[in-house]
Amino acid sequence: MITKEQKAELIKQYGKNEHDSGSAEVQVAILTARIKELTEHMKSHKKDFHTRRGLLMLVGKRRRLLSYIKKNDIENYRNLIKSLGIRDNIQ
């Protein structure tokens, strides 16, 4: 689980100010942190299908947000995926 301090750090890094938790960039950063943690969990608990479903839902949500960012501001999208270490496969 992502802690309050980690979440605040992501908001500070990717948001417009320290209270900007709703912008798409911040949401993608928070989702990426959660996805990384759940991926590590799934490596040791291969048959945890409830967590797998939640992980797939998070990945889908992140993909939709990334496609929105790419549609509106391609340069911001490229900077975001580079800083988060995400591959570019959004059509």
TrEMBL record:
Keywords recorded for this protein, A-Z: Ribonucleoprotein, Ribosomal protein, RNA-binding, rRNA-binding
Pfam families xref list: Ribosomal_S15
PROSITE patterns, alphabetized: RIBOSOMAL_S15 (PS00362)
GO-annotated cellular components: ribosome
Presence of keyword Repeat: no
SMART domains per record: Ribosomal_S15 (SM01387)
Function: One of the primary rRNA binding proteins, it binds directly to 16S rRNA where it helps nucleate assembly of the platform of the 30S subunit by binding and bridging several RNA helices of the 16S rRNA. Forms an intersubunit bridge (bridge B4) with the 23S rRNA of the 50S subunit in the ribosome.
PANTHER family: RIBOSOMAL PROTEIN S15, BACTERIAL AND ORGANELLAR, SMALL RIBOSOMAL SUBUNIT PROTEIN US15M
Family: Belongs to the universal ribosomal protein uS15 family.
Entries under HAMAP family matching the protein: Ribosomal_uS15_B
Subunit structure comment from the entry: Part of the 30S ribosomal subunit. Forms a bridge to the 50S subunit in the 70S ribosome, contacting the 23S rRNA.
NCBIfam families: S15_bact
Record's protein name: Small ribosomal subunit protein uS15
Organism: Paratractidigestivibacter faecalis
Gene that encodes it: rpsO
